[in-house]
Structure formats: structure tokens, C-alpha cells
Specification:
By secondary structure, the chain is α/β, with parallel strands linked by helices. The protein has three domains: 77 residues, Roll (Ubiquitin-like (UB roll)); 88 residues, Translation factors (Elongation Factor Tu (Ef-tu), domain 3), CATH 2.40.30.10; 124 residues, 3-Layer(aba) Sandwich (Rossmann fold), CATH 3.40.50.80. It is built from seven helices and 17 strands. The chain has a six-stranded antiparallel β-sheet. The protein has a six-stranded parallel β-sheet with strand order 15-14-13-12-16-17, sandwiched between helices. The longest helix has 13 residues. It binds flavin-adenine dinucleotide. Flavin-adenine dinucleotide binds next to β9, β10, α3 and β17.
Length: 315
């Protein structure tokens, strides 16, 4: 039996979820019907494991499955694809942590479920929406964002002008870039430039809080040392967790505390044998694209490369 909102759809003997929905007149996308093209991907509470086996761990963790491969034995409750409802938040704190970068703490007025590393949309009163990654854990009770002010930027400029107590409306959470505790000994490689640190901080803290025992290498990159921020907080985190190593990488003017050179070259060097590593790549779109390509060509399976490129909103 399938539950879809108020609708109950009985499945015939041996029928897949895709076949059952089509027979009942539900409009559902499909392609190869062989579990390859993923066009019929849907979301449900506890879908049959065989209908998730070819998907990325983050999709599996969110209940995504392939309808053409699913023959549920009991009732399967499908999630509708409605957009999440906006949530009001209050600015709890705003701190300038580096030139042009603010760390903003938002306290939601109603529950806002998310996984650290996912992103949310900030809704500007004039109707524009921009995405920002979440650096905090649900147990913190606040949403931590790291926002770089873009010259003439509509939403980043507005956010930088907010003060404690102001209201900010958000919606979400979105994205596949978060930790899944499916292998506590796996090596995790976290690489990001600039405010790409925000999701990486959330992912590292989340992995540690879930008892991840394998090595975690977090590389934060920037143009020069002054662009790197939260260094003390990262060092404190690493002092408490010997499996976490923090690396700083700059393109120029490195001191003894930073590597000087390209972020992607350092990432490949620190990754070691790539077949057993999961990578998280966040920040500037071009840098993320270059990192993903380099790691894939060096032998990392694409399903183990989770990336959030911070692409600008379309004009
Ligand atoms: C999944 C995702 C996660 C993101 N997470 C973060 C985050 O954690 N922190 C963060 O600071 N940003 C993040 N971003 C980027 C953010 O969503 C906005 O694009 C950014 O803040 C600029 O928005 P704006 O309204 O201020 O500028 P806009 O008004 O959109 O743009 C103003 C002008 O600046 C240009 N521009 C926009 N972005 C850039 C840029 N990066 N470099 C140079 N020029 C630019 C535009 O083309 C335009 O000409 C993320 C983006 C995505 C897609």
C-alpha cells in the first residue's frame, strides 16, 4: 500500500511503486525503468533498501529511492515535493571574523530541521533569496552562517547590515553535503576556500559528535593568511579530537602556519589512497569544480565526492 497525502494506493502483487503510481493516474517522471537514470527518484519513510542501493549515502539517509526498483512489503508513506515553509528567525549575534566576512547566529522561532553542512535560503524582504551553508549543529539551538559581503551584493550586504534582535526569514534546509555515519573508520577529506569553511565546520563537528574515529583532514584555503578565519576555534576543536587535523593553505605570503600553493594539489597529497576516502568540497564554484575534477581523475569514486559550489544567483 502507498500513502501519498490523503490518497491511498494499493499495490498489485509484484508491482513496483512506479507501476502502481502510473496505474493510479499519478503524474510521475520516469526514464530507463532499470534503476540507472534516476528520473523516478522519490522520497519516503523507510523505503526498501534494494531501491536505494545505487544512490549516494546522503540521498539514502534522506529517504530517497528509485520508484522503478521499489517493491515495498508493507505500507510506504511517500513525501510530497512541496517547497518548505519559511521560518522567522532573530539575529542572536553578528561578529566580523575577517575582512568582509561575518559570522551570523540566527535563532529560529519554530523548529528548523537540518543536517550540519546543508544550506538554507535567506529571504530578503524585497523577494530575493540567497543560499548560505550551516556551520552549527541542531543541538546548538542557533543557525550559524558565515557570510562574505559581495560588493553591491543585494542579500549579503543586507545581512551584513543586520544587528542583534533583527528579524531574518529563511527556508530550507537543502543539499546533500552532510555527514552520514555509515563507516566510522573512513577517512574524511574536507576542503573549502573562504566561507566554504562554514559547511566544513558543521560536517567536522557533526562527524565527531557521532563518534567518527577515522582521520578527518580539514583544509581551509584563502588568497593570503589574513583571509583565513576562526583559526583559534579550529585549533581548539583539533586539540579535543586527535583524529582531526587542520591545514591552512594560501596562494601567497604564507607564514610557518600555512602551506603555500594550490588547494587541489594539497588536497590530493593529503588524501592518500583515494578509494577509501570521502570528500566534502565547498565554496567558490570554480575552486570546487577544479577540486572535484582533480580528485576524480586521481581515482576517487564520484559517489564519494560531495560538493556544494557557492554559485551566484542567476541575474
Ligand atoms: C549552495 C550554496 C551555498 C552558499 N553558501 C554560502 C555561504 O555559506 N557563505 C557565503 O558567503 N555565500 C554562500 N553562497 C553564495 C550566496 O548564496 C550568494 O550568491 C552571495 O552571498 C551573493 O549574493 P548577493 O545577493 O549579496 O549578491 P548579488 O546581488 O546576487 O550579486 C551582486 C553582484 O556580484 C556578483 N557576484 C555574486 N556572487 C559573487 C562572488 N562570489 N564573487 C564575485 N562576484 C559575485 C553578481 O554576479 C552580481 O554582479 C552560497 C551559494 C550556494 C549556491
Amino acid at each position: 500500500m502507498l500513502s501519498l497525502g490523503a490518497q491511498e494506493i494499493p499495490l498489485l502483487e509484484g508491482e513496483t511503486v512506479l507501476e502502481g503510481l502510473e496505474r493510479s493516474g499519478v503524474d510521475v517522471a520516469s526514464g530507463c525503468r532499470a534503476g540507472t537514470c534516476c528520473k523516478c527518484m522519490l522520497r519516503a519513510d523507510s523505503p526498501p533498501p534494494e531501491s536505494q542501493s545505487t544512490l549516494r549515502p546522503t540521498l539514502r539517509a534522506q529517504g530517497y529511492f528509485l520508484a522503478c526498483q521499489a517493491r515495498p512489503e508493507g505500507r510506504l508513506t511517500l513525501h510530497s515535493a512541496e517547497a518548505p515553509t519559511p521560518v522567522d528567525t532573530r539575529v542572536e549575534e553578528i561578529e566580523h571574523v575577517a575582512e568582509g566576512v561575518a559570522r551570523i547566529l540566527l535563532r529560529p522561532s519554530t523548529p528548523f530541521p537540518f543536517r550540519p553542512g546543508q544550506y538554507l535560503d535567506v529571504l530578503h524582504p524585497d523577494g530575493h533569496a540567497r543560499s548560505y551553508s550551516i556551520a552549527s549543529l541542531p543541538s546548538d539551538g542557533v543557525l550559524e552562517l558565515h557570510v562574505r559581503e559581495i560588493p553591491n551584493g543585494r542579500v549579503s550586504g543586507w545581512l551584513h547590515g543586520r544587528v542583534q534582535g533583527d528579524d531574518v526569514r529563511i527556508r530550507g534546509a537543502f543539499g546533500q553535503c552532510f555527514h552520514v555515519a555509515d563507516d566510522p573508520r573512513k577517512k574524511l577529506l574536507l576542503v573549502g576556500a573562504g566561507t566554504g569553511l562554514a559547511p566544513l565546520l558543521g560536517i567536522a563537528r557533526d562527524a565527531l559528535s557521532q563518534g567518527h574515529a577515522g582521520p578527518i583532514d580539514l583544509i581551509h584555503g584563502g588568497l593570503e593568511p589574513g583571509r583565513l578565519y576562526l583559526r583559534e576555534e579550529l585549533s581548539r576543536l583539533a586539540e579535543q579530537a586527535p583524529q582531526l587535523r587542520i591545514h591552512h593553505c594560501v596562494l601567497r605570503r604564507a607564514t610557518q602556519h600555512e602551506h603555500e600553493g594550490q588547494l587541489d594539489e594539497l588536497a590530493v597529497r593529503l588524501a592518500g589512497p583515494l578509494a577509501s576516502v570521502r570528500a566534502f568540497l565547498c565554496g567558490d564554484g570554480e575552486i570546487v569544480h577544479k577540486l572535484r575534477r582533480k580528485l576524480f581523475l586521481a581515482g576517487m569514486p564520484s559517489a564519494e565526492i560531495l560538493a556544494d559550489p557557492f554559485l551566484p544567483a542567476p541575474a
